[in-house]
Hints:
By secondary structure, the protein is mainly α. 75% of the residues lie in helices and 0% in strands. The N and C termini lie far apart (57 Å).
Amino acid sequence: MTLIGTLTVVWYSVLPWLWLLAILAVILLVPQIVARMQGYGFNKTGGMGSRFLPPLFFVLAFFFVPWHTDSSIAYVNTWVDWLNLIGAAIAIGIYSWLVFHPICYLRNRPR
């Protein structure tokens, strides 16, 4: 398959989910931009929410990602399935940290 053919298949696979990707991009960018205007950086302290919620979402992703795809954890049999599930859980954990850390910084910053 050519590169253009592969990109066409990926585009048609992503097309029904563009609305969700746009919402997730807004949810990610708005706290980052607002917090960075207030002096936020990744090395700043976030707070309790940015310490406990991302690991919680990471663990919950192991159950909700198969449920979202109309599957179950019992169907995750091969090593490729496990790598996909672990990768999705890691991505959800990182995304939630990128969202909650600036929000917790804004909430707990010294004024």
